[in-house]
Write a structure and sequence with these properties.
With 81 residues, the chain is mainly β. It is built from no helices and nine strands. The protein has one domain: Sandwich (ATP Synthase, domain 1).
Length: 81
């Protein structure tokens, strides 16, 4: 699965991942390989990324939107915290 985290000023992350946990407006949720297509708003919180070699990276975001389609995840964040 491939993830991009973008802000208006830069690309924060781009690469293959095992899973990502996002702060959805109705509660946090995880996205894994073969997740159903979805578009969701995000609240302020932590985006937790787990890479294929189990490295964990955390990114604090102010708010944003996530889109999942065909094992590609795009997070458009207003800004990082």
């Amino acid at each position: 699965m491939y993830l991009e985290i973008l802000t208006p000023s830069k690309k924060v992350f781009a690469g293959d991942i095992k899973l990502v946990k996002v702060p959805g407006s109705a509660g946090s949720f995880e996205i894994m390989k073969n997740h159903a297509p979805i578009i969701s708003t995000l609240d302020e919180g932590n985006v937790r990324v787990v890479t294929p070699d189990n490295e964990i990276q955390n990114f604090g975001i102010k708010s944003g939107v996530v889109q999942v389609l065909e094992n590609k995840v795009i997070i458009l964040a207003e800004s990082l915290l």
